[in-house]
Amino acid sequence: FRRASSFRGPPYHKPPRSPPAPLCTPGAPLRPKMSAMTWQRKSSSSRLLDS
């Protein structure tokens, strides 16, 4: 699991996929890998827009 955490992104940033996936990426089910990467990148801007 350590490899996955480092590969996906920093360990300090590990939020749930269910809520963010559909909110940030509409094509989450179509592209699970891309959605995760895009979600991490848009996580900061998404929070600003959502908040």
Protein architecture, described:
This protein is mostly helical and 51 residues long. 61% of the residues lie in helices and 0% in strands. The protein has helices at 2-8, 20-24, 32-50. Residues 1-51 are annotated as: Disordered. Residues 37-51 have a biased composition (Polar residues).
Strand content: under 5%
* Form type: globular
What gap, in angstroms, lies between the N and C termini? 31 Å
Characterize the biggest β-sheet: none
Instruction: Give the C-alpha Rg.
Output: 11 Å
**Average pLDDT across residues?**
53
Structural class assignment:
mainly alpha
Supply the number of helical segments: 3
Low-pLDDT ranges: 19-25
SSE string: HHH
How many DSSP-defined strands? 0
Q: In which range does the helix fraction lie?
A: 55-70%
Characteristics of this structure?
0% strand; 3 helices; mainly alpha; 51 residues; globular
Describe, in short, the structure shown.
This protein is 61% helix and 0% strand. The chain has 51 residues and is mostly helical. Residues 1-51 are annotated as: Disordered.
